[in-house]
Write a structure and sequence with these properties.
This protein is α/β, with parallel strands linked by helices. The strands form two sheets. An eight-stranded mixed sheet has the order 3-4-2-5-1-8-9-10, sandwiched between helices. It contains ten helices and ten strands. The protein is globular, with a radius of gyration of 18 Å. Helices cover 41% and strands 17% of the residues. Strand 3 and strand 4 form a beta hairpin. It has one domain: P-loop containing nucleotide triphosphate hydrolases (Rossmann fold, 3-Layer(aba) Sandwich), CATH 3.40.50. The longest helix has 24 residues.
Amino acid sequence: MPVVCLASAKSCGVTTTALALTFASARPSLLAECDPAGGTIRAGLLQSQVSAGYGLYHLAAAERVGQVELASAFTSHLWPLDGPNGHRKVLPGLTDPAQAAALSRTWPALSDVLHVMSESVGHDVFVDVGRVALESGHLHPTLTPAPLLHKADLVLLAVRGTEQGLTLARHLIRPLRTELEEHGSGADAVGLLLIEEGTFRSHQVAEALEAPVLAALPWDPDTAAYLNAGGKPPRGFDRTPLLRSARSAAEQLEAIASRRRIQQQYPSPPAGAHPQLAGVLDRLAAPGGARG
C-alpha cells in the first residue's frame, strides 16, 4: 500500500483530488494535509467541525519528545471522514502558514509514521503537500515539505488539461525529477495526475511535459464542490464520475508503486522495523481509535 504525495504548480485541485482518492480507496485510507501554506479541509468539507486544537501543527511538540509520542499524537489528531467507526481519516492541516516553520524538523519523523501506517498498519496514504515552491532549482526548505516527497512511493503533480495548466507545470517537472533522483527513490517516482478539464488529453499532456500520466480524473464540478465546501453530498456520491475514476486510479497507483519496488529492487520497510511504533499506530488508528 503506497504513500502517494500530491502536489501542484498552482491551485490545481490537489486537495479535492486527495480527498477523492481517500474516499474511493477500497482499503483503510488516510489523508495527511501537509500543505505549508495552510489547510482547507477544516473550513471546507468539515465545515469548521474541527477546532484549531486538532491537526498537523500539534505534532511538532510531540516529535521533540520522541517517536512513540509523535505516533500517539498523530493518531489522536486524526479525524474520521466517514463516521467514528469508518476507515477513512484525515490529519487536518495548518490553520496559519506561519506555523510551517515549526514543522521543519518534524517532516522526516512524520514521513516515517506515514510509511508505518502504510506498510505495517495497512492504509493507503495520500499526502497533500500543496503548491511546490522552489529555491535555486531545489525544493524550498520551508515552503515545501521536502522530506515527505523524498520518501514517498510516488509523487504526483496535478495538472489541468489546459494551456495554462501545462504552462504552470512545465517548469516543475525537471526540478522534481532531479530532487527525487538525488534524494529520493529515483526520478521515475514523479508522474502526472491529469484533471480532465480542458482540451488536452493524457498523451498530449505526457508529451508536452515529458512525464507519464499515471492517473486521470474527470472534471466533475458537483462532486468537487462537495469535497471543497461540504454540505449535502451529491446523490449517489460513491457512484459519481469522480469517485468511480478515483477508485480505479487508487488501484492503478498501488500497482505502479509495487512495480517500481520490484524493478528497482528497493524493498518495502520490513514490518518489524518499528515494532513499537507500529503497535501504537495499529491500536490507535483502528476504527473508533481516532477522535470523532
